[in-house]
Amino acid sequence: MTGSRGSSAPTGPWADRPHVPGYGIPESTDGILPWSWAVDRLERATIYWLATSGADGAPHLMPIWGAWVDGRWYVEGGPTRWQRNLKANPQVAIHVESGSDVLIVEGRARELVAPPADLADRILAGFAKYRPDYEASADHWTQGGLWVLDPIRAFAWTSFPTDMTRFRFHR
Questions:
Q1: 18 vs 16: CA distance, rounded Å
Q2: Cα dihedral 11, 13, 19, 22 sign
Q3: pTM of the full predicted structure?
């Protein structure tokens, strides 16, 4: 477990196995992936697949840049379809680009306007991996356009079904 129940930092996650009948997922937690494995991939990823759906339920999937910082995922952009979708339906999922090291994070998104300077600095440091092609700026976040995913659960595996792992966050 990470974090504490009294802080604003994410608590959890707890790791176990998902129940998926017929797929041979072990019942024991022996061999599950550690959360540190997931954090490493979330921090290093340069492409995340972002899944949203609008008020009408129509799905929308797109590759996008983002930053995993302090146990949450941050993404920025202009008034695009994914932002309109999040305003109508805050449920969201991301997946790191790799199809062999699978890592899916599900949660709820919320828009941040003018985050505190210390948080903004950490988010900007997370976006530094895109330099020199892109330079994020906290000046763009004074009116919105910065979103945070608060994770609820994540699924990961490198050798399905042997190391299939579910992480559950408690806030």
A1: 7
A2: positive
A3: 0.90
